[in-house]
Specification:
- By secondary structure, this protein is α/β, with parallel strands linked by helices.
- It is built from 19 helices and nine strands.
- It has three domains: about 170 residues, 3-Layer(aba) Sandwich (Rossmann fold), CATH 3.40.50; about 250 residues, Orthogonal Bundle (N-(1-d-carboxylethyl)-l-norvaline Dehydrogenase, domain 2), CATH 1.10.1040.10; about 30 residues, 6-Phosphogluconate Dehydrogenase, domain 3 (Single alpha-helices involved in coiled-coils or other helix-helix interfaces), CATH 1.20.5.320.
- Helix 1 links the parallel strand 1 and strand 2.
- The N and C termini lie far apart (about 85 Å).
- Bound molecules: NADPH dihydro-nicotinamide-adenine-dinucleotide phosphate (NDP) and ribulose-5-phosphate (5RP).
Length: about 475
Protein backbone atom coordinates (compact mmCIF):
# COMPACT_ATOMS: atom_id res chain seq x y z
CA UNK A 1 0.00 0.00 0.00
CA UNK A 2 1.22 3.50 -0.84
CA UNK A 3 2.54 5.56 2.06
CA UNK A 4 0.16 8.11 3.54
CA UNK A 5 1.13 11.23 5.47
CA UNK A 6 -0.10 12.43 8.87
CA UNK A 7 -0.52 16.13 8.07
CA UNK A 8 -1.23 18.23 4.98
CA UNK A 9 -0.25 21.85 4.47
CA UNK A 10 -1.50 24.15 1.72
CA UNK A 11 0.56 27.27 0.94
CA UNK A 12 4.31 26.81 1.16
CA UNK A 13 5.14 30.50 1.60
CA UNK A 14 6.81 32.19 4.57
CA UNK A 15 4.64 30.55 7.25
CA UNK A 16 3.63 27.31 5.52
CA UNK A 17 7.13 26.19 4.53
CA UNK A 18 8.41 26.73 8.05
CA UNK A 19 5.39 25.17 9.73
CA UNK A 20 5.53 21.98 7.65
CA UNK A 21 9.24 21.52 8.38
CA UNK A 22 8.47 21.96 12.08
CA UNK A 23 5.76 19.27 11.80
CA UNK A 24 8.24 16.92 10.11
CA UNK A 25 10.89 17.63 12.77
CA UNK A 26 8.38 16.42 15.34
CA UNK A 27 8.02 12.99 13.75
CA UNK A 28 4.76 13.57 11.92
CA UNK A 29 5.00 12.87 8.21
CA UNK A 30 3.77 15.86 6.22
CA UNK A 31 2.72 16.63 2.68
CA UNK A 32 2.54 20.10 1.12
CA UNK A 33 0.53 21.70 -1.68
CA UNK A 34 1.33 24.94 -3.46
CA UNK A 35 0.46 26.34 -6.86
CA UNK A 36 4.13 27.21 -7.39
CA UNK A 37 6.32 24.21 -8.33
CA UNK A 38 9.46 26.09 -7.24
CA UNK A 39 8.11 26.22 -3.68
CA UNK A 40 7.43 22.48 -3.76
CA UNK A 41 10.95 21.88 -5.05
CA UNK A 42 12.56 23.97 -2.33
CA UNK A 43 10.44 22.19 0.32
CA UNK A 44 11.90 18.87 -0.90
CA UNK A 45 15.40 20.33 -0.73
CA UNK A 46 14.99 21.89 2.73
CA UNK A 47 13.18 18.81 3.99
CA UNK A 48 15.84 16.35 2.84
CA UNK A 49 16.17 13.64 5.48
CA UNK A 50 12.70 14.32 6.92
CA UNK A 51 9.43 12.60 6.05
CA UNK A 52 8.09 15.53 4.06
CA UNK A 53 7.11 15.91 0.43
CA UNK A 54 4.81 18.04 -1.71
CA UNK A 55 2.99 18.57 -4.96
CA UNK A 56 1.16 21.14 -7.05
CA UNK A 57 -1.64 18.66 -7.78
CA UNK A 58 -4.60 18.85 -5.40
CA UNK A 59 -5.86 15.32 -6.17
CA UNK A 60 -2.46 13.83 -5.51
CA UNK A 61 -2.25 15.90 -2.32
CA UNK A 62 -5.55 14.59 -1.00
CA UNK A 63 -4.71 10.99 -1.92
CA UNK A 64 -1.50 11.17 0.11
CA UNK A 65 -3.12 12.05 3.43
CA UNK A 66 -4.17 9.55 6.09
CA UNK A 67 -7.76 9.82 7.38
CA UNK A 68 -9.25 11.71 9.02
CA UNK A 69 -7.26 14.21 6.96
CA UNK A 70 -5.73 17.13 8.79
CA UNK A 71 -5.14 19.92 6.29
CA UNK A 72 -3.77 23.25 7.36
CA UNK A 73 -4.02 26.31 5.10
CA UNK A 74 -1.35 28.98 5.32
CA UNK A 75 -2.41 31.05 2.33
CA UNK A 76 -3.25 34.78 2.32
CA UNK A 77 -6.50 35.63 4.13
CA UNK A 78 -9.64 36.37 2.11
CA UNK A 79 -10.21 35.07 -1.44
CA UNK A 80 -7.34 32.52 -1.45
CA UNK A 81 -8.80 30.74 1.61
CA UNK A 82 -12.20 30.41 -0.11
CA UNK A 83 -10.49 29.30 -3.33
CA UNK A 84 -8.57 26.51 -1.57
CA UNK A 85 -11.67 25.38 0.34
CA UNK A 86 -13.72 25.29 -2.88
CA UNK A 87 -10.97 23.32 -4.61
CA UNK A 88 -10.37 20.78 -1.88
CA UNK A 89 -13.69 20.24 -0.13
CA UNK A 90 -15.28 18.16 -2.94
CA UNK A 91 -12.32 15.77 -2.60
CA UNK A 92 -12.64 15.36 1.17
CA UNK A 93 -14.52 12.82 3.28
CA UNK A 94 -16.77 13.26 6.30
CA UNK A 95 -14.73 13.73 9.45
CA UNK A 96 -11.77 15.42 7.72
CA UNK A 97 -10.42 18.68 9.16
CA UNK A 98 -9.50 21.91 7.43
CA UNK A 99 -7.46 24.21 9.63
CA UNK A 100 -7.10 27.80 8.45
CA UNK A 101 -3.88 29.06 10.06
CA UNK A 102 -3.97 32.51 8.45
CA UNK A 103 -5.15 35.84 9.79
CA UNK A 104 -8.70 35.39 8.55
CA UNK A 105 -11.49 37.71 9.63
CA UNK A 106 -13.56 35.91 12.25
CA UNK A 107 -16.93 36.25 10.53
CA UNK A 108 -15.43 34.64 7.39
CA UNK A 109 -14.47 31.70 9.59
CA UNK A 110 -18.03 31.38 10.92
CA UNK A 111 -19.38 31.39 7.38
CA UNK A 112 -16.86 28.77 6.19
CA UNK A 113 -17.37 26.56 9.24
CA UNK A 114 -21.13 26.58 8.76
CA UNK A 115 -20.88 25.68 5.08
CA UNK A 116 -18.36 22.86 5.69
CA UNK A 117 -20.28 21.52 8.68
CA UNK A 118 -23.17 20.69 6.35
CA UNK A 119 -20.73 18.43 4.45
CA UNK A 120 -19.46 16.79 7.65
CA UNK A 121 -16.07 18.53 7.41
CA UNK A 122 -14.62 20.22 10.49
CA UNK A 123 -13.22 23.72 10.07
CA UNK A 124 -10.77 25.26 12.52
CA UNK A 125 -9.98 28.96 12.39
CA UNK A 126 -6.58 28.87 14.02
CA UNK A 127 -4.36 31.79 14.92
CA UNK A 128 -0.65 31.16 14.52
CA UNK A 129 1.83 33.67 15.89
CA UNK A 130 5.59 33.88 15.94
CA UNK A 131 6.44 34.85 12.38
CA UNK A 132 8.70 32.69 10.23
CA UNK A 133 10.99 31.64 13.09
CA UNK A 134 8.07 30.79 15.31
CA UNK A 135 6.44 28.67 12.62
CA UNK A 136 9.74 26.84 12.14
CA UNK A 137 10.75 26.27 15.76
CA UNK A 138 7.65 26.79 17.92
CA UNK A 139 4.77 29.21 17.46
CA UNK A 140 1.88 30.02 19.74
CA UNK A 141 -1.21 28.41 18.23
CA UNK A 142 -4.83 29.47 18.85
CA UNK A 143 -7.31 26.90 17.49
CA UNK A 144 -11.08 27.34 17.59
CA UNK A 145 -13.85 25.07 16.38
CA UNK A 146 -15.45 21.77 17.38
CA UNK A 147 -14.04 20.79 20.80
CA UNK A 148 -14.11 17.02 20.23
CA UNK A 149 -12.61 17.25 16.73
CA UNK A 150 -9.76 19.32 18.17
CA UNK A 151 -8.47 16.09 19.74
CA UNK A 152 -7.62 14.84 16.23
CA UNK A 153 -5.06 17.56 15.65
CA UNK A 154 -4.05 18.27 19.25
CA UNK A 155 -0.99 15.93 19.27
CA UNK A 156 0.51 17.65 16.22
CA UNK A 157 -0.12 21.16 17.57
CA UNK A 158 1.21 20.34 21.02
CA UNK A 159 4.36 18.86 19.50
CA UNK A 160 5.14 21.78 17.18
CA UNK A 161 4.20 24.68 19.46
CA UNK A 162 6.58 26.66 21.67
CA UNK A 163 6.90 25.40 25.26
CA UNK A 164 7.05 27.38 28.50
CA UNK A 165 7.98 25.41 31.61
CA UNK A 166 7.29 22.30 29.53
CA UNK A 167 3.73 23.46 28.79
CA UNK A 168 2.75 23.80 25.11
CA UNK A 169 1.78 27.24 23.85
CA UNK A 170 -1.39 25.90 22.28
CA UNK A 171 -4.79 25.08 23.65
CA UNK A 172 -8.40 24.97 22.53
CA UNK A 173 -9.63 28.59 22.43
CA UNK A 174 -13.36 28.04 22.06
CA UNK A 175 -16.23 27.49 19.70
CA UNK A 176 -16.48 28.54 16.03
CA UNK A 177 -14.26 31.55 15.19
CA UNK A 178 -12.76 31.91 18.70
CA UNK A 179 -9.26 31.08 17.42
CA UNK A 180 -9.28 33.80 14.78
CA UNK A 181 -10.81 36.27 17.20
CA UNK A 182 -8.14 35.62 19.82
CA UNK A 183 -5.43 36.01 17.16
CA UNK A 184 -7.02 39.25 15.92
CA UNK A 185 -6.87 40.77 19.40
CA UNK A 186 -3.34 39.39 19.83
CA UNK A 187 -2.43 41.44 16.77
CA UNK A 188 -4.27 44.50 18.11
CA UNK A 189 -2.18 44.28 21.27
CA UNK A 190 0.88 43.78 19.03
CA UNK A 191 0.07 47.07 17.26
CA UNK A 192 -0.29 48.81 20.63
CA UNK A 193 3.00 47.53 22.04
CA UNK A 194 4.88 48.36 18.83
CA UNK A 195 3.51 51.91 18.85
CA UNK A 196 4.52 52.35 22.51
CA UNK A 197 8.04 51.08 21.87
CA UNK A 198 8.41 53.51 18.97
CA UNK A 199 7.31 56.35 21.29
CA UNK A 200 9.87 55.31 23.92
CA UNK A 201 12.49 55.29 21.12
CA UNK A 202 11.49 58.83 20.06
CA UNK A 203 11.58 60.21 23.60
CA UNK A 204 15.01 58.69 24.21
CA UNK A 205 16.44 59.63 20.82
CA UNK A 206 15.14 63.18 20.39
CA UNK A 207 14.49 63.99 24.04
CA UNK A 208 17.37 62.34 25.88
CA UNK A 209 19.77 62.33 22.92
CA UNK A 210 20.63 58.63 23.02
CA UNK A 211 22.69 57.19 20.17
CA UNK A 212 21.72 53.98 18.41
CA UNK A 213 24.37 52.13 20.41
CA UNK A 214 22.92 53.53 23.65
CA UNK A 215 19.43 52.62 22.48
CA UNK A 216 20.64 49.09 21.82
CA UNK A 217 22.15 48.89 25.31
CA UNK A 218 18.99 50.31 26.89
CA UNK A 219 16.53 47.96 25.17
CA UNK A 220 18.88 45.05 25.79
CA UNK A 221 18.94 45.93 29.50
CA UNK A 222 15.15 46.35 29.59
CA UNK A 223 14.76 42.92 28.06
CA UNK A 224 16.48 41.48 31.12
CA UNK A 225 14.08 43.13 33.56
CA UNK A 226 10.37 43.75 33.94
CA UNK A 227 9.97 44.70 30.26
CA UNK A 228 11.28 41.34 29.09
CA UNK A 229 9.43 40.69 25.85
CA UNK A 230 10.02 39.54 22.30
CA UNK A 231 9.32 43.00 20.87
CA UNK A 232 11.83 44.68 23.21
CA UNK A 233 14.36 41.94 22.41
CA UNK A 234 14.14 42.46 18.64
CA UNK A 235 14.14 46.24 19.11
CA UNK A 236 17.54 45.95 20.86
CA UNK A 237 18.84 43.91 17.92
CA UNK A 238 17.53 46.39 15.34
CA UNK A 239 19.73 49.20 16.69
CA UNK A 240 22.95 47.28 15.94
CA UNK A 241 22.15 46.32 12.35
CA UNK A 242 24.23 47.98 9.62
CA UNK A 243 22.82 48.75 6.19
CA UNK A 244 24.61 46.69 3.53
CA UNK A 245 24.16 49.44 0.90
CA UNK A 246 25.49 52.42 2.84
CA UNK A 247 27.06 50.96 5.98
CA UNK A 248 24.92 53.40 7.98
CA UNK A 249 22.78 52.13 10.85
CA UNK A 250 19.91 50.44 9.02
CA UNK A 251 17.27 51.95 11.32
CA UNK A 252 18.21 55.43 10.10
CA UNK A 253 17.61 54.65 6.42
CA UNK A 254 14.24 52.94 6.90
CA UNK A 255 11.35 55.15 5.73
CA UNK A 256 9.03 56.20 8.57
CA UNK A 257 5.82 54.90 6.94
CA UNK A 258 4.37 51.89 8.79
CA UNK A 259 2.26 49.55 6.69
CA UNK A 260 -0.58 47.36 7.96
CA UNK A 261 -2.54 44.39 6.74
CA UNK A 262 -5.67 45.10 8.77
CA UNK A 263 -5.78 42.97 11.91
CA UNK A 264 -5.20 45.97 14.21
CA UNK A 265 -7.95 47.92 12.47
CA UNK A 266 -10.33 44.96 12.77
CA UNK A 267 -9.58 44.79 16.50
CA UNK A 268 -10.48 48.46 16.92
CA UNK A 269 -13.56 48.22 14.73
CA UNK A 270 -14.91 45.20 16.55
CA UNK A 271 -14.12 46.70 19.95
CA UNK A 272 -16.37 49.60 18.95
CA UNK A 273 -19.11 47.14 18.00
CA UNK A 274 -18.81 45.48 21.38
CA UNK A 275 -18.73 48.82 23.22
CA UNK A 276 -15.32 48.04 24.69
CA UNK A 277 -12.70 50.82 24.75
CA UNK A 278 -9.25 49.94 23.40
CA UNK A 279 -7.82 53.45 22.90
CA UNK A 280 -4.16 52.42 22.77
CA UNK A 281 -4.93 50.04 19.91
CA UNK A 282 -7.07 52.69 18.16
CA UNK A 283 -4.21 55.15 18.39
CA UNK A 284 -1.68 52.60 17.15
CA UNK A 285 -3.76 52.16 13.98
CA UNK A 286 -4.15 55.95 13.58
CA UNK A 287 -0.41 56.50 13.99
CA UNK A 288 0.34 54.05 11.17
CA UNK A 289 -2.14 56.01 9.07
CA UNK A 290 -0.55 59.37 9.99
CA UNK A 291 2.88 57.88 9.28
CA UNK A 292 1.80 57.12 5.73
CA UNK A 293 0.94 60.81 5.13
CA UNK A 294 4.64 61.49 4.66
CA UNK A 295 4.39 64.20 2.00
CA UNK A 296 1.81 66.19 3.96
CA UNK A 297 3.77 65.74 7.18
CA UNK A 298 6.83 67.21 5.53
CA UNK A 299 4.84 70.16 4.15
CA UNK A 300 3.31 70.75 7.58
CA UNK A 301 6.72 70.63 9.23
CA UNK A 302 7.93 73.48 7.03
CA UNK A 303 4.67 75.40 7.58
CA UNK A 304 4.68 75.11 11.38
CA UNK A 305 8.45 74.83 11.86
CA UNK A 306 10.45 71.82 12.98
CA UNK A 307 10.22 71.10 16.71
CA UNK A 308 13.18 72.27 18.69
CA UNK A 309 13.31 69.64 21.38
CA UNK A 310 14.85 70.60 24.71
CA UNK A 311 16.18 67.98 27.08
CA UNK A 312 15.09 67.66 30.69
CA UNK A 313 17.79 66.78 33.15
CA UNK A 314 15.25 65.35 35.58
CA UNK A 315 13.94 62.84 33.02
CA UNK A 316 15.78 59.51 33.06
CA UNK A 317 15.93 56.36 30.98
CA UNK A 318 14.42 54.64 34.02
CA UNK A 319 11.38 56.96 33.75
CA UNK A 320 10.93 55.91 30.12
CA UNK A 321 11.29 52.23 31.08
CA UNK A 322 8.61 52.63 33.75
CA UNK A 323 6.34 54.61 31.42
CA UNK A 324 6.63 51.88 28.79
CA UNK A 325 5.94 49.17 31.36
CA UNK A 326 2.88 51.06 32.63
CA UNK A 327 1.61 51.41 29.04
CA UNK A 328 2.29 47.72 28.34
CA UNK A 329 0.05 46.78 31.30
CA UNK A 330 -2.75 49.06 30.17
CA UNK A 331 -2.57 47.80 26.57
CA UNK A 332 -2.77 44.14 27.57
CA UNK A 333 -5.62 45.06 29.93
CA UNK A 334 -7.58 46.68 27.09
CA UNK A 335 -7.09 43.71 24.75
CA UNK A 336 -7.93 41.13 27.40
CA UNK A 337 -11.11 42.95 28.36
CA UNK A 338 -12.11 42.95 24.69
CA UNK A 339 -11.56 39.17 24.58
CA UNK A 340 -13.52 38.70 27.78
CA UNK A 341 -16.44 40.69 26.35
CA UNK A 342 -16.27 39.03 22.92
CA UNK A 343 -16.29 35.59 24.48
CA UNK A 344 -19.55 36.45 26.25
CA UNK A 345 -21.10 38.17 23.22
CA UNK A 346 -20.20 35.46 20.71
CA UNK A 347 -20.52 32.56 23.21
CA UNK A 348 -16.98 31.36 22.50
CA UNK A 349 -16.39 30.02 26.00
CA UNK A 350 -12.82 31.37 26.10
CA UNK A 351 -10.82 30.77 29.24
CA UNK A 352 -8.80 33.91 29.94
CA UNK A 353 -6.12 32.07 31.91
CA UNK A 354 -5.58 29.69 28.99
CA UNK A 355 -5.16 32.59 26.57
CA UNK A 356 -2.56 34.25 28.82
CA UNK A 357 -0.86 30.86 29.25
CA UNK A 358 -0.44 30.13 25.54
CA UNK A 359 0.81 33.67 24.83
CA UNK A 360 3.72 33.29 27.26
CA UNK A 361 5.86 31.76 24.52
CA UNK A 362 6.14 31.56 20.74
CA UNK A 363 4.04 34.60 19.85
CA UNK A 364 4.98 38.17 18.95
CA UNK A 365 3.45 39.63 22.15
CA UNK A 366 5.11 37.15 24.52
CA UNK A 367 6.51 38.86 27.58
CA UNK A 368 7.26 38.33 31.24
CA UNK A 369 3.98 40.06 32.07
CA UNK A 370 1.95 37.22 30.56
CA UNK A 371 2.75 34.97 33.51
CA UNK A 372 1.49 37.69 35.90
CA UNK A 373 -1.63 37.94 33.77
CA UNK A 374 -2.11 34.17 33.83
CA UNK A 375 -1.86 34.24 37.64
CA UNK A 376 -4.40 37.07 37.81
CA UNK A 377 -6.92 35.02 35.83
CA UNK A 378 -6.11 31.93 37.89
CA UNK A 379 -7.06 33.95 41.00
CA UNK A 380 -10.28 35.16 39.42
CA UNK A 381 -11.63 33.37 36.34
CA UNK A 382 -14.28 36.05 35.84
CA UNK A 383 -11.94 39.06 36.07
CA UNK A 384 -13.38 41.74 33.78
CA UNK A 385 -10.21 43.86 33.75
CA UNK A 386 -6.62 43.03 34.60
CA UNK A 387 -6.41 46.47 36.22
CA UNK A 388 -8.70 45.13 38.96
CA UNK A 389 -6.19 42.47 40.01
CA UNK A 390 -4.25 43.57 43.08
CA UNK A 391 -0.83 42.33 41.89
CA UNK A 392 -1.22 43.91 38.46
CA UNK A 393 -2.46 47.09 40.20
CA UNK A 394 0.68 47.17 42.35
CA UNK A 395 2.85 46.92 39.24
CA UNK A 396 0.93 49.68 37.46
CA UNK A 397 0.99 51.95 40.52
CA UNK A 398 4.76 51.58 40.90
CA UNK A 399 5.23 53.10 37.41
CA UNK A 400 2.40 55.64 37.34
CA UNK A 401 4.48 58.67 38.35
CA UNK A 402 7.02 58.04 35.57
CA UNK A 403 4.24 57.45 33.04
CA UNK A 404 2.88 60.94 33.84
CA UNK A 405 6.34 62.49 33.81
CA UNK A 406 7.24 61.09 30.38
CA UNK A 407 3.86 62.02 28.89
CA UNK A 408 4.04 65.57 30.29
CA UNK A 409 7.59 66.05 29.01
CA UNK A 410 6.78 64.69 25.53
CA UNK A 411 3.62 66.79 25.20
CA UNK A 412 5.55 69.87 26.31
CA UNK A 413 8.19 69.26 23.64
CA UNK A 414 5.87 68.23 20.82
CA UNK A 415 7.01 64.61 20.69
CA UNK A 416 3.95 62.54 19.73
CA UNK A 417 3.24 59.95 22.40
CA UNK A 418 -0.40 59.29 21.68
CA UNK A 419 -0.16 55.61 22.67
CA UNK A 420 1.20 56.47 26.10
CA UNK A 421 -1.28 59.31 26.57
CA UNK A 422 -4.22 57.16 25.43
CA UNK A 423 -3.17 54.50 27.93
CA UNK A 424 -2.85 57.02 30.75
CA UNK A 425 -6.22 58.62 30.02
CA UNK A 426 -7.85 55.19 29.84
CA UNK A 427 -6.26 54.37 33.19
CA UNK A 428 -7.34 57.68 34.71
CA UNK A 429 -10.91 57.29 33.51
CA UNK A 430 -11.08 53.65 34.55
CA UNK A 431 -9.80 54.47 38.03
CA UNK A 432 -12.11 57.48 38.60
CA UNK A 433 -15.32 56.68 40.45
CA UNK A 434 -17.17 59.76 39.22
CA UNK A 435 -16.49 61.08 35.73
CA UNK A 436 -17.85 64.33 34.24
CA UNK A 437 -20.14 62.43 31.89
CA UNK A 438 -23.14 63.34 34.02
CA UNK A 439 -22.90 66.57 32.02
CA UNK A 440 -23.21 64.66 28.74
CA UNK A 441 -26.37 63.02 30.06
CA UNK A 442 -27.73 66.45 31.01
CA UNK A 443 -26.93 67.81 27.53
CA UNK A 444 -28.56 64.80 25.84
CA UNK A 445 -31.65 65.28 27.90
CA UNK A 446 -31.60 69.05 27.29
CA UNK A 447 -31.49 68.91 23.49
CA UNK A 448 -33.21 65.63 22.79
CA UNK A 449 -35.22 64.47 25.80
CA UNK A 450 -32.98 61.41 25.94
CA UNK A 451 -33.55 61.03 29.72
CA UNK A 452 -31.04 60.33 32.46
CA UNK A 453 -30.61 58.23 35.58
CA UNK A 454 -29.94 59.75 39.02
CA UNK A 455 -27.35 59.11 41.70
CA UNK A 456 -29.88 59.24 44.54
CA UNK A 457 -32.84 57.14 43.33
CA UNK A 458 -33.81 54.47 40.83
CA UNK A 459 -35.68 55.24 37.64
CA UNK A 460 -35.49 57.13 34.35
CA UNK A 461 -35.89 60.93 34.49
CA UNK A 462 -36.46 63.81 32.10
CA UNK A 463 -36.31 67.52 32.86
CA UNK A 464 -37.86 70.43 30.97
CA UNK A 465 -34.61 72.41 30.86
N1 LIG B 1 4.26 36.21 7.72
C1 LIG B 1 3.98 36.23 9.00
O1 LIG B 1 4.80 36.63 9.85
C2 LIG B 1 2.67 35.75 9.50
C3 LIG B 1 1.62 35.49 8.62
N2 LIG B 1 0.43 35.02 9.11
C4 LIG B 1 -0.67 34.71 8.22
O2 LIG B 1 -0.44 33.46 7.58
C5 LIG B 1 -1.03 33.46 6.26
C6 LIG B 1 0.06 33.13 5.24
O3 LIG B 1 1.05 34.16 5.32
P1 LIG B 1 2.47 34.05 4.64
O4 LIG B 1 3.02 32.69 4.76
O5 LIG B 1 3.24 35.20 5.18
O6 LIG B 1 2.08 34.33 3.10
P2 LIG B 1 2.92 34.00 1.78
O7 LIG B 1 2.39 34.90 0.73
O8 LIG B 1 4.38 34.01 2.07
O9 LIG B 1 2.53 32.50 1.45
C7 LIG B 1 1.27 32.12 0.99
C8 LIG B 1 1.46 30.91 0.09
O10 LIG B 1 0.19 30.41 -0.28
C9 LIG B 1 0.26 30.06 -1.66
N3 LIG B 1 -1.08 29.99 -2.24
C10 LIG B 1 -1.92 30.99 -2.50
N4 LIG B 1 -3.06 30.51 -3.02
C11 LIG B 1 -2.94 29.17 -3.08
C12 LIG B 1 -3.76 28.11 -3.52
N5 LIG B 1 -4.97 28.37 -4.02
N6 LIG B 1 -3.30 26.84 -3.45
C13 LIG B 1 -2.08 26.59 -2.94
N7 LIG B 1 -1.23 27.55 -2.51
C14 LIG B 1 -1.66 28.83 -2.57
C15 LIG B 1 1.11 31.16 -2.25
O11 LIG B 1 1.60 30.81 -3.50
P3 LIG B 1 1.93 31.99 -4.56
O12 LIG B 1 2.91 32.90 -3.94
O13 LIG B 1 2.46 31.23 -5.73
O14 LIG B 1 0.60 32.65 -4.83
C16 LIG B 1 2.21 31.23 -1.20
O15 LIG B 1 3.20 30.26 -1.41
C17 LIG B 1 -1.66 34.85 6.08
O16 LIG B 1 -2.99 34.80 6.45
C18 LIG B 1 -0.88 35.71 7.07
O17 LIG B 1 -1.61 36.83 7.49
C19 LIG B 1 0.25 34.74 10.43
C20 LIG B 1 1.26 34.96 11.34
C21 LIG B 1 2.52 35.53 10.95
O1 LIG C 1 0.11 37.95 12.48
C1 LIG C 1 1.22 38.41 12.54
C2 LIG C 1 2.06 38.23 13.75
O2 LIG C 1 1.40 37.63 14.77
C3 LIG C 1 1.72 39.26 11.41
O3 LIG C 1 3.10 39.33 11.40
C4 LIG C 1 1.04 40.55 11.54
O4 LIG C 1 -0.22 40.35 10.90
C5 LIG C 1 1.66 41.70 10.86
O5 LIG C 1 0.63 42.63 10.74
P1 LIG C 1 0.77 44.00 9.99
O6 LIG C 1 1.36 43.68 8.64
O7 LIG C 1 -0.61 44.53 9.93
O8 LIG C 1 1.71 44.83 10.83
Amino acid sequence: MEKTYDFGLVGLGVMGRNFILNVADNNFSAYGLDTDSEKVKSLREEGAGKVVDGTTDKKEFISKLSRPRKIMLLVPAGGPVDAVINDLSPLLDKGDLIIDGGNSFFTDTDRRAESLESKGIYFFGTGVSGGAKGARFGPSIMPGGDKDAYEIVRPVFEAVSAKVNGEPCVDYMGARSAGNYVKMVHNGIEYGLMQLISEAYDVMKRGLGLSNQQLHNTFDQWNKSKLQSFLVEITAEIFTKKDELTNKDLIDVILDKAKQKGTGKWTSQNAMDLGIPVPTIDVAVSMREISSMKADREKAESLYGAKSIKGDSSLTVKDVEDALFFAYIVTYAQGMTQLWAASKEYKYGCDMETIAKIWRGGCIIRSGLLEDMRKAYARDKALSSLLLDKDIAAKAKSCEVSARKVAAYAIGQGIPVSGMVAGLSYFDAFTTGRLPLNLIQAQRDHFGSHTYERTDREGIFHTEW
